[in-house]
């Protein structure tokens, strides 16, 4: 039929034009380049090519742009139903956060059996994979097979296999403390470099992670935080860098204040000479003076 | 697990799927499944069983005593796996294969009946309004369950959600229960799970999930809106 021939030639013409412009052609340019004879079949041709996935359609601002997909992509999606593609696109949009099946159903408006089938197809082709989120271990979350799950899902550096790895953290803390004691004075970056070089772990930890470790150690009382002035003992570090040194002021277990009853008295502020609570009637002193 | 169709259950299931309780919404499931696995099910079953055995090997003392019985026995393992598979059926958006046997607890039927009747008090009133005072929702439910699964031959298990990060204990859920009636002889498991959601906590997005369009109007009935 004449119409079919028109569509056929339009298909070929469009494919040639798009091959020639790897960055894509806008609707306008495509129409201009197509001769008037081919324009008739153009709309049908484009629809056919889109459904065969030999052409991709994008929106740039207000214009529609057509592009040839990269060579391997057409093969990737061959034989997938529109439902499968819809689910794939939704998963693609979620990028490395992944998407929960319930949200998938909501966005695609597909029913449970359809979504389940699409997921099965996509998984069979290794296009998507299931991931576990530490936020809710039981939810079924999927993402593109080639992506690495984000830190929010895996829990970041301190989680191994969805479990909080306190052993690992303790080992890392030890390393940091030892380095600080050896150096006397160190900044987060120098600590990070040294511990990385020691090769104690293959895990990639960023400076942010080391800062977390150092904050823990400060609160534990094992190291002290200080700021560099750029001069004197701090000359190795630029001014205003946060530095760490081993804890120098250790609080002693007992002191003069804690030895006498008044130092630890719970009602100290109510104690007056002639009041209900007074040194004369103090029960704590009675006990204390009994030796 | 194959879904088993029983008319009395289907009727109750349809009713319980959304019940408007005024300022809250009940969502329930009453479904029966056959444990006689075939094909894909058998594969899942074996995988799960292997996982349980592996974890048993790594920490034997932890898992030897569990609510479903000692995990070293294959019957207890079977029970646990059937429970997990049933959970997966009732809640298809979740995968409960990571569950620990301690998430389930064996219950005595009388206390379960008491509990359920208590929870469903409000719902029973709504049912009575619709179907007349003579019909008691709880009686209908227990009769139907007995017909399908013969309660006296059953072991009843309750799913205890973890205290945090679980949709069952999410904000907005006023109460929930998940009971599983397992009849070993009949190789059948019946799931009776209900959740009561507060309407105030449901925002527009999740409203679409919970109700279809006609139900949305029904949803607002009974709420004071001025």
From TrEMBL, chain A:
One Pfam assignment: RNA_pol_Rpc34
InterPro entries reported for this sequence: RNA_pol_Rpc34, RNA_pol_Rpc34-like, WH-like_DNA-bd_sf, WH_DNA-bd_sf
One GO BP annotation of this record: transcription by RNA polymerase III
GO terms for cellular component: cytoplasm; nucleoplasm; RNA polymerase III complex
Protein family according to the UniProt entry: Belongs to the eukaryotic RPC34/RPC39 RNA polymerase subunit family.
PANTHER family attached to this UniProt entry: RNA POLYMERASE III DNA DIRECTED , 39KD SUBUNIT-RELATED
Protein function: DNA-dependent RNA polymerase catalyzes the transcription of DNA into RNA using the four ribonucleoside triphosphates as substrates. Specific peripheric component of RNA polymerase III which synthesizes small RNAs, such as 5S rRNA and tRNAs.
Protein name: DNA-directed RNA polymerase III subunit RPC6
Organism: Ceratopteris richardii (Triangle waterfern)
Lineage of the organism: Eukaryota, Viridiplantae, Streptophyta, Embryophyta, Tracheophyta
From TrEMBL, chain B:
InterPro entries: Maf1, Maf1_sf
A GO CC annotation given for this chain: nucleus
GO biological process, one term: negative regulation of transcription by RNA polymerase III
Alphabetized UniProt keyword annotations: Nucleus, Repressor, Transcription, Transcription regulation
One function term, GO molecular function aspect: RNA polymerase III core binding
Location(s) in or outside the cell: Nucleus
Organism domain of life: Eukaryota
Coiled coil segments of this chain: none
Main location: nucleus
Family: Belongs to the MAF1 family.
UniProt name for this protein: Repressor of RNA polymerase III transcription
Organism: Ceratopteris richardii (Triangle waterfern)
């Amino acid at each position: 039929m004449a119409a079919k021939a028109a569509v056929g030639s339009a298909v070929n013409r469009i494919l040639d034009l798009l091959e020639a412009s790897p960055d894509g052609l806008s609707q306008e340019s495509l129409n201009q380049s197509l001769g008037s004879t081919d324009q008739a079949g153009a709309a049908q041709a484009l629809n056919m090519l889109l459904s065969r996935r030999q052409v991709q359609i994008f929106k740039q601002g207000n214009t529609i742009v057509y592009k040839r997909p990269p060579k391997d992509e057409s093969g990737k999606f061959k034989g997938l139903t529109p439902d499968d593609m819809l689910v794939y696109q939704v998963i693609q949009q979620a990028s490395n956060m992944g998407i929960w099946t319930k949200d998938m159903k909501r966005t695609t408006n597909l029913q449970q059996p359809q979504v389940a089938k699409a997921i099965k197809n996509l998984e069979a082709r290794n296009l998507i994979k299931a991931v576990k989120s530490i936020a809710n271990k039981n939810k079924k979350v999927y993402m593109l097979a080639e992506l690495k799950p984000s830190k929010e899902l895996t829990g970041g550096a301190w989680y191994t296999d969805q479990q909080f790895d306190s052993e690992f953290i303790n080992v890392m803390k030890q390393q940091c403390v030892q380095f600080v004691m050896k150096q006397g004075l160190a900044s987060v970056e120098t600590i990070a470099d040294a511990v990385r070089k020691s090769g104690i772990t293959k895990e990639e930890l960023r400076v942010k992670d080391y800062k977390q470790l150092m904050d823990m150690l400060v609160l534990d009382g094992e190291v002290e935080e200080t700021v560099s002035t750029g001069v004197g003992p701090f000359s190795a570090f630029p001014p205003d860098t946060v530095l760490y040194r081993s804890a120098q002021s250790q609080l002693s277990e007992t002191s003069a204040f804690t030895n006498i009853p008044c130092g630890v008295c719970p009602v100290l502020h109510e104690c007056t000479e002639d009041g209900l609570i007074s040194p004369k009637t103090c029960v704590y002193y009675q006990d204390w003076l009994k030796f | 697990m194959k879904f088993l169709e029983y008319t009395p259950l289907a009727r109750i299931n349809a009713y319980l799927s959304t019940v408007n309780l005024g300022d809250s919404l009940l969502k329930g499931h009453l479904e029966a499944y056959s444990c006689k696995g075939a094909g894909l099910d058998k594969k899942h079953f074996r995988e799960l069983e292997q996982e349980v055995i592996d974890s048993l090997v790594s920490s034997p003392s932890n898992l030897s005593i569990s609510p479903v019985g000692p995990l070293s026995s294959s019957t207890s393992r079977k029970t646990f796996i059937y429970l997990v598979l049933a959970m997966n059926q009732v809640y298809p958006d979740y995968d409960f294969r990571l569950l620990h046997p301690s998430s389930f607890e064996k219950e005595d039927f009388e206390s379960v009946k008491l509990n359920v009747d208590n929870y469903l008090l409000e719902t029973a009133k709504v049912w009575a309004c619709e179907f007349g005072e003579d019909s008691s929702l709880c009686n209908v439910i227990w009769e139907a369950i007995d017909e399908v699964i013969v309660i006296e031959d059953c072991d009843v298990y309750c799913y205890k959600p973890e205290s945090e990060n679980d949709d069952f204990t999410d904000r907005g859920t006023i109460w929930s229960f998940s009971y599983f009636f397992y009849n070993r002889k009949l190789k059948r498991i019946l799931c009776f799970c209900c959740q009561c959601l507060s309407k105030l906590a449901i925002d527009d997005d999740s409203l679409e999930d919970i109700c279809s369009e006609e139900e949305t109007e029904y949803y607002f009935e009974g709420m004071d809106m001025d």
